[in-house]
Design brief:
Blueprint: H1 3-13, E1 18-23, E2 26-31, E3 34-41, E4 44-48, H2 54-61, E5 66-67, E6 78-81, H3 88-102, H4 105-110
Antiparallel strand pairs: 1-2, 2-3, 3-4, 4-6, 5-6
Length: about 120
Amino acid sequence: MSAALTRLRRICLALPEAEERETWDTPTFRVRGKIFCMALTEPLAIWVKAPRGSQEVLIAAAPERFFRPPYLGHKGWVGVNLTGRPDWAEVEALVRRSWSLVAPRALAARAGSAEPG
């Protein structure tokens, strides 16, 4: 297991009620059964849910780091390349935002929407 995947697991599983399940031969992170982050291992990347319009902005700003993932890209999800030296603060913020978009509203409200301060 790579150090990057270990770090990603720590970020994802620190969120309220988050759990990991392997699906489609890849780690997925869920809150109450709903996926908020998928980790792809070759090449190492994640897919996260993003607010409307964010996908286009991120890809336009840094196409070497962000991409439109297959299957979920048309729903606004964004792919994040984790090869090289990822910005872990940025990764954590994206994962937390995705969690807050997927988590039930009452849980997100109790958790302070899990948005970074």
